[in-house]
Amino acid sequence: MKVAITGASGLVGRALVRSLLGDGHEVVRLVRKEPSGADEARWDPFGAIDARALDGVDAVVHLAGAGIGDHRWTESYKRQIRDSRVVGTRNLAETLAGLAAKPRVLVSASGMNFYGDTGDRATDETAPAGTGFLADLARDWEAAAAPAADAGIRVVLPRSGHVLTADGGFLGRLLPLFKLGLGGKLGNGRQWMSWISRDDHIAALRFLIDGDIAGPVNLTTPHPVTNAEFTRALGRAVGRPAIFTVPSFALRVALDGLADEGALINLRIVPGRLTAAGFAFRHPELDGALADLR
C-alpha cells in the first residue's frame, strides 16, 4: 500500500510513518520545504500541490495544522490556526478530487473539541457540534474535506483526544513538572478529559485506513477521566506526589482563550464507532498507558 501523509514530522505523523514502513508499506511525506528525498513531495496548504506525487496513492492521511497550544491566542495566531486547517484541507481535498486515479480513502484529522463543553455526559459521534472557537474550527475543518467525499473518496474524520506520549504534546509538557514533584490539578480538577495512548492512536488510524468506516470517528479511550484523576495517576506513574493546584485564573492568564476551550471545560468523549467496529484498545485504562514513563 502507498500512503501519502501531511504533518509527517509531527507527534503523530512520525509514529504513523514508522508503523507503516515497519509493515512494508510505501510512504510519501508531503512537506512544505524543498523535498530532500524520493519519499518526499512538495505541498503548500495555501497554494500548489504536486499532484504527480499522488499518482498511485492508495490512502492519504492529513495531519498538518498550526499547533493549538504553541503560542498565545492572539487574533492573528487564531487566524493561522484556522487557515492552516480549513484552507489546507480544502486545497488537498480539491486536488485529490481532481486526480484521474483517486485514493480510496482520505483520513483527515479533526479534534474532540468539535463537541464543545460536554458536561458530565458521555459523548459519542451522534452528538451535535458545540460552540466556541475550537468547536467552530473543527466543524469547518471537517466540512473542508467535502470535495474529496463528493468525488467518491471515502473520507474519515478522526476527532482525536489528548494523545499521550512522553515525546511531546499535552503529556510531554506536563511530565517534567511532575517528575520534579511540581505537578497538580488544573482548577478544581473536576473537568473531564479524554485521552488515548499514542500506540492506540496509531493503531486506530491504521484500522481506519484499512477498514470501511466513513465520517466522524472519536479517537479516545473508552475510559475518560477527570483532571484530578489524571493528576493522581501521573503522579503515581512517576513516583512523585502531585499535590499542587493551578488556579483557574492563572490558567486564563497563561493560556488566553485556550483555558476556557480546553483545560477547564468538560470533554467527556467516548469512541462509539471504534468500539462498535470491534477495535481493540491496547491501553484502555490510564494507569496502563502511563506505566512506562519512569
Short structural description:
The chain is α/β, with parallel strands linked by helices and 294 residues long. The chain is built from eleven helices and 14 strands. It has helices at residues 11-22, 75-97, 133-143, 146-150, 169-179, 198-210, 227-238, 248-255, 258-263, 272-276, 286-289; strands at 2-6, 26-31, 40-42, 59-62, 105-108, 110-111, 154-160, 162-164, 184-186, 192-193, 195-197, 215-219, 225-226, 244-246.
Question: How would you characterize the overall build of this protein?
Answer:
The protein is of the alpha/beta class and 294 residues long. The protein has one domain (2-289): NAD(P)-binding Rossmann-like Domain (Rossmann fold). Helices cover 37% and strands 18% of the residues. It contains 11 helices and 14 strands. The protein has helices spanning 11-22, 75-97, 133-143, 146-150, 169-179, 198-210, 227-238, 248-255, 258-263, 272-276, 286-289; strands spanning 2-6, 26-31, 40-42, 59-62, 105-108, 110-111, 154-160, 162-164, 184-186, 192-193, 195-197, 215-219, 225-226, 244-246. Strands 1, 2, 3, 4, 5, 6, 7 and 12 form an 8-stranded parallel β-sheet that branches. Strands 8-11 form a two-stranded parallel sheet. Strand 4, helix 2 and strand 5 form a beta-alpha-beta unit. Helix 1 packs across helix 6 and helix 2 packs parallel to helix 3. 43% of the residues are buried.
Task: Please give the structural blueprint.
Layout: E1 2-6, H1 11-22, E2 26-31, E3 40-42, E4 59-62, H2 75-97, E5 105-108, E6 110-111, H3 133-143, H4 146-150, E7 154-160, E8 162-164, H5 169-179, E9 184-186, E10 192-193, E11 195-197, H6 198-210, E12 215-219, E13 225-226, H7 227-238, E14 244-246, H8 248-255, H9 258-263, H10 272-276, H11 286-289
Parallel strand pairs: 1-2, 1-4, 2-3, 4-5, 5-7, 6-7, 7-12, 8-11, 9-14
Antiparallel strand pairs: 10-13
Helix pairs in contact: 1-6, 2-3
